[in-house]
Amino acid sequence: MREKSNPDFVEAIARGFSVVRSFDGAPSQSLSEVAQRTGLARPTARRVLITLQELGYVASKEGRFELTPRVLELGVAFFGDSDFWDAAMPRLRQLVDLTNESSSIAVLDGSDVVYVARAAVPKLVTLSVSVGTRFPAAQTSLGKVLLADMSSVELDDVLATPSRSGVVPPWDPDRGELDAVLAEVREQGWAISDQQLAPAIRSIAAPVRRADGTVFAAVNVNAHAAETTLEHLQNVHLPHLLSAAEDLGLDYALRARIPVATTG
């Protein structure tokens, strides 16, 4: 459980989410397992589980608990309020057609990037990627773009959050090294990652901006180091990538201007 840094922090809600997250990689758990994985006392874990069960997010059978499909509502609230990620797919496919490389869009969640859209091509791969996949942000081109848009204080906060990706990258920069990298990203307007997340993974990313210029997502072109050089990524794929990122930002701004239909 994280330390409370805000007087308005609601610990009961935090406990509830910690219990939900404890099922990652564990389809079903006993009460003892939930308590152990969350660090909660057994009586507290039991009350949280009973509450989630009453709300329909957890089911129990023969002393074991499992999440119900209703938990998908928690993620759908992010994707469903705006179907922008689905609407972005034609842009990604167009980028894939131009580069013959896979392309993804990601957003920041703590110190991780989370993939929200992806168009892939059959290629040599060393990491499996799909919508919902998360990786440590600092080691990815997508993450560098997103981190570069933050103030120093915001960056401190994000980097203090442990990654939940389960990935241990070969590149582990100290803060000074990362600051230098992010300063370069801010200056040039794009980021590159050369096997910093995993061997043979090479990518280049650009920011997707709102109308006010703030970055809300990043889009990349991903390649295998044995097939695509850094020079090719930068000289051939980058212009297509920057154009796609700009188009995605314009699409987002246009959708934001569309009136939301109401009923009643």
From TrEMBL:
<dbReference type="InterPro" id="IPR036388">
    <property type="entry name" value="WH-like_DNA-bd_sf"/>
</dbReference>
<dbReference type="Pfam" id="PF09339">
    <property type="entry name" value="HTH_IclR"/>
</dbReference>
<dbReference type="InterPro" id="IPR036390">
    <property type="entry name" value="WH_DNA-bd_sf"/>
</dbReference>
<keyword id="KW-0238">DNA-binding</keyword>
<feature type="domain" description="HTH iclR-type">
    <location>
        <begin position="10"/>
        <end position="69"/>
    </location>
</feature>
<dbReference type="GO" id="GO:0003677">
    <property type="term" value="F:DNA binding"/>
</dbReference>
<keyword id="KW-0804">Transcription</keyword>
<feature type="domain" description="IclR-ED">
    <location>
        <begin position="70"/>
        <end position="254"/>
    </location>
</feature>
<protein>
    <submittedName>
        <fullName>Helix-turn-helix domain-containing protein</fullName>
    </submittedName>
</protein>
<dbReference type="InterPro" id="IPR005471">
    <property type="entry name" value="Tscrpt_reg_IclR_N"/>
</dbReference>
<dbReference type="GO" id="GO:0003700">
    <property type="term" value="F:DNA-binding transcription factor activity"/>
</dbReference>
<dbReference type="GO" id="GO:0045892">
    <property type="term" value="P:negative regulation of DNA-templated transcription"/>
</dbReference>
<dbReference type="Pfam" id="PF01614">
    <property type="entry name" value="IclR_C"/>
</dbReference>
<keyword id="KW-0805">Transcription regulation</keyword>
<dbReference type="InterPro" id="IPR029016">
    <property type="entry name" value="GAF-like_dom_sf"/>
</dbReference>
<dbReference type="InterPro" id="IPR050707">
    <property type="entry name" value="HTH_MetabolicPath_Reg"/>
</dbReference>
<dbReference type="InterPro" id="IPR014757">
    <property type="entry name" value="Tscrpt_reg_IclR_C"/>
</dbReference>
